[in-house]
Design the sequence.
């Protein structure tokens, strides 16, 4: 039970007054931005990231974790009250959550989502603490070939999970990899694809990608519709679910937590699948599946718990292997790098305060949402009542300030603008931006690992077959790609998303 | 562009999926451009990869993907091109450019209201007076929060003529 001791140490770090305050501020700000329609966790974190630059590393990461949970909670609030999911994983919450809101049970939906998230978060925190040490020691035997193969598996998994055409998802990943090569070559230092521009010489910031593709592009899409979306003037109702609703939710919450914890660990953003999987499972297990889509509380409790558990365990690949499994974690890498921390197995041994403090603060962030943020739901509703014709102006100025604070470089705002146009075009041609971000996130690391692996093997690709762990991941990646292409399985996959 | 339009006579158009056709053509063009831009960089060998290897082969992959989309657009029925609503993007892009140009030269107190007021016209429901009030309020709010509470490096007001730099 070594990890419990470590966790206790982490709690001591996390409950220092300044860290509690920052965690609280992070949760509040994260909810504030995350609740804005169309702004998901990626854009929220990208906008708020610069605020943490001035803090010491542990405090900065604790605040960022708070922002992350706040953003997720804000996203759920927007889905439940407005039926506008900020990201794909909140789509599921909107199905039954918004229906509950229309029946005047918005309070119960918001309440169960916070309670479920808290339970899921608490369990997932223990899972992280327990798995961190063994996985980190596993990572120490990984060489560049293994890392490359593992990341390839992550990308294959992302293709499998992408909505719409598998082929287009592969193209998106390639574009992401290509964008990641802009800037200096890490070994020779030669500049690539910078067109002689000084402001491209350091490459493209992941935060710009997040704000452009997910923030501003979404504004473009929303402006097409005009003022159609308005908060229903419904009663929020009682925030605490009734005893009956609680009883109905206990098992979905636990099942969702289990699903989310497992899927979140997988590299390649498995967490995004968790709410869908949980919803499908609850619908299958329900005595009257017909209630789903008509305001079934299980359809909120399960997916929300799964989502939060997955969000939390997706820290595991980052903290133990140094591989960010999704764009949110890539932003965390960005934050760590700015503070001079290289993510990977060595964090745990070299910076135990930071590592265990961060993990303990995850639990604290969830608690904050429950006891502080939930009572503030009235405030968030007021915010949602601001008409979109003004709200999007606010979103744009937040993005501008966020971008400018990163490097104090006005040209970055133009890069973001270009990425926004690109993101808008992607949606017009039915391409998904999510696989692109993952390709971007992993691209540079894959190039480095591939280069080192081939250097060690003297240019022979056989190294990926001869080394058993690498071979295992390569086979896994191929299997997943084949599965993604097979029509019969594809149909099953599409059903999950249609449901 | 006549290839893209469905024939009035009802005969089957040559391009059955305009969306895939345009997307694929664009990808081929972009990939070719990238390969051209990389032409000055060494590719190296597998044993010692040069700076151009990964971007070049990735671009070639993208180009091939684009080619497949173009071929598919002749074979498989697909979606038509979607309409682009230009009003929103044009005003928002103008506002971003305004912000980028003015933030360093005159500072946030001028850049923010200017760009926000421009962006607001991207919505068809714009109400100028309301927008102006919102713009001023947001500028003050952001200046206080980001500059003073969060200590961000935001130049607030720069007027060289009066040697003000704040």
Sequence:
């Amino acid at each position: 039970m070594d990890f419990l001791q470590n966790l206790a140490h982490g709690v001591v770090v996390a409950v220092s007054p300044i860290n509690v305050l920052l965690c609280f501020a992070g949760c509040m700000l994260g909810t504030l931005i995350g609740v804005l329609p169309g702004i998901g966790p990626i854009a929220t974190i990208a906008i708020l990231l610069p605020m943490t630059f001035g803090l010491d590393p542990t405090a900065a990461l604790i605040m960022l974790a708070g922002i992350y949970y706040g953003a997720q909670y804000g996203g759920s609030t927007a889905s439940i009250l407005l039926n506008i999911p900020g990201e794909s994983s909140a789509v599921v919450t909107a199905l039954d959550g918004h229906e509950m809101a229309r029946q005047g049970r918005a309070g119960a939906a918001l309440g169960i989502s916070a309670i479920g998230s808290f339970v899921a978060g608490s369990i997932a925190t223990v899972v992280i603490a327990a798995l961190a040490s063994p996985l980190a020691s596993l990572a120490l035997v990984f060489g560049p070939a293994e890392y490359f193969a593992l990341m390839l598996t992550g990308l294959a998994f992302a293709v499998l999970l992408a909505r719409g055409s598998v082929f287009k998802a592969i193209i998106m990943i390639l574009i992401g990899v290509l964008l990641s090569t802009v800037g200096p070559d890490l070994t020779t230092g030669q500049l690539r694809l910078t067109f002689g521009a000084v402001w491209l010489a350091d490459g493209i910031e992941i935060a710009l990608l997040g704000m452009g593709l997910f923030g501003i592009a979404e504004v473009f899409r929303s402006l097409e519709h005009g003022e159609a979306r308005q908060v229903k003037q419904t009663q929020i109702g009682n925030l605490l679910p009734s005893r009956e609703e609680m009883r109905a939710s206990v098992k979905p919450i636990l099942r969702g937590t289990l699903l989310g914890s497992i899927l979140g660990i997988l590299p390649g953003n498995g967490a995004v699948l968790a709410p869908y999987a949980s919803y499908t499972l609850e619908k299958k297990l329900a005595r009257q599946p017909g209630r789903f889509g008509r305001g079934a509380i299980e359809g909120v409790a399960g997916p929300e718990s799964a989502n939060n558990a997955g969000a939390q365990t997706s820290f595991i690949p980052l903290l133990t292997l140094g591989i960010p499994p999704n764009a949110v974690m890539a932003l965390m890498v960005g934050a760590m790098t700015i503070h001079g921390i290289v993510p990977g197995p060595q964090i745990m041994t070299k910076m135990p305060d930071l590592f265990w403090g961060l993990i303990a603060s995850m639990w604290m962030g969830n608690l904050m949402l429950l006891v502080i943020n939930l009572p503030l739901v009235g405030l968030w509703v007021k915010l949602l009542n601001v008409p979109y014709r003004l709200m999007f102006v606010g979103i744009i100025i937040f993005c501008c300030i966020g971008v400018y604070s990163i490097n104090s470089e006005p040209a970055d705002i133009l890069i973001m603008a270009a990425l926004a146009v690109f993101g808008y075009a992607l949606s017009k041609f039915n391409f998904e931006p999510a696989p692109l971000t993952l390709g971007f996130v992993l691209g540079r690391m894959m190039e480095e690992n591939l280069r080192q692996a081939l250097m060690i093997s003297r240019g022979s690709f056989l190294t990926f077959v001869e080394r058993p762990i690498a071979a295992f991941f390569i086979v896994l990646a191929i299997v997943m790609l084949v599965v993604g292409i097979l029509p019969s399985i594809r149909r099953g996959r599409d059903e999950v998303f249609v449901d | 562009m006549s290839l893209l339009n469905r024939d009035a006579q009802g005969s089957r158009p040559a391009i059955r999926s305009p969306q895939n056709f345009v997307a694929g053509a664009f990808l081929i063009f972009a990939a070719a451009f990238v390969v051209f831009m990389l032409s000055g960089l060494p590719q190296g060998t597998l044993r010692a990869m040069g700076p151009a290897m990964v971007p070049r082969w990735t671009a070639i992959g993208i180009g091939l993907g684009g080619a497949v989309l173009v071929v598919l657009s002749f074979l498989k029925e697909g979606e038509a091109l979607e309409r682009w609503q230009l009003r929103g993007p044009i005003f928002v892009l103008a506002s971003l450019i305004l912000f980028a140009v003015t933030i360093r030269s005159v500072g946030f107190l001028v850049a923010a209201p200017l760009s926000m007021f421009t962006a607001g016209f991207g919505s068809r429901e714009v109400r100028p007076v309301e927008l102006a009030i919102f713009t001023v309020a947001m500028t003050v709010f952001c200046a206080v929060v980001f500059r003073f509470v969060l200590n961000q490096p935001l130049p607030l007001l720069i007027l060289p003529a009066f040697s003000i730099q704040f």
